[in-house]
Model the fold of this input.
Amino acid sequence: MPTTSLSSREFNQDIGRAKKAAQNGPVVITDRGKPAHVLMTIDEYQKLTRQRQSLVDRLSMPDLSDVEFEPGRADITLREADLS
Done:
């Protein structure tokens, strides 16, 4: 995914160009040569901000109801602590 860099002046003069470039990857907008803002599509933004689900949430999803999940039994044995 290519990153495009535009100065604030270039961005203001040709917003259409920036929007087209954002379809291919993030557009970094600079102020006085330093990165200040990033323009991206709403789809990319939603991917970045989507809340992560826990394993329990994922396994309880309706489309996964036919997936069998039978974890093996844990074999835990106690042993003496060596304090020497």
About this structure: The beta strands are 4-7, 27-31, 34-39.
